[in-house]
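This section describes the prediction task in plain terms. A model, or a person checking by hand, is given the sequence of a single protein chain and must write out its three-dimensional structure as a string of tokens. No templates, partner chains or ligands are provided. The sample shown here is typical of the held-out split.
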Amino acid sequence: MYDSILVPTDGSDGANRAIEHGLQLAERFDSTLYTLFVVDTRRYGEPALSAAELVLDDLEDRGQELLDDLVQRADNRGIDVVTHLCHGSPEEEIVAYADEIDAELLVMGYQGQSHRHDMGSVVSRVLQETDRPVLVA
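The expected answer:
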């Protein structure tokens, strides 16, 4: 049913729920699971040799750790997985990457790192910007 499933992650509880749903779907439909971590540069920009660069480096390291963990989880279940780490605006990068890989389904957490009660702004914007099916976990 789905050949390509995209699951963006930010390490939040919502993203972790989405990852589990994505893994289950990929396993069930023998899909390739694509996962994405976006280093959000809206707050810090793309600095050259500044304190903000250290923050972005830490975020990039954290993102790579999350992606590596997901690869291990997928490998343990026999799921093909492709990871991608980039810098930019999360909602823009998610939509662009979904288009690039022709994702048949996006699986996203209801809330990300900075939300507690309402639907996260990133998932809200992705829902507005894409015509692809989005499962919100």
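For orientation: DSSP finds four helices and five strands in the chain.
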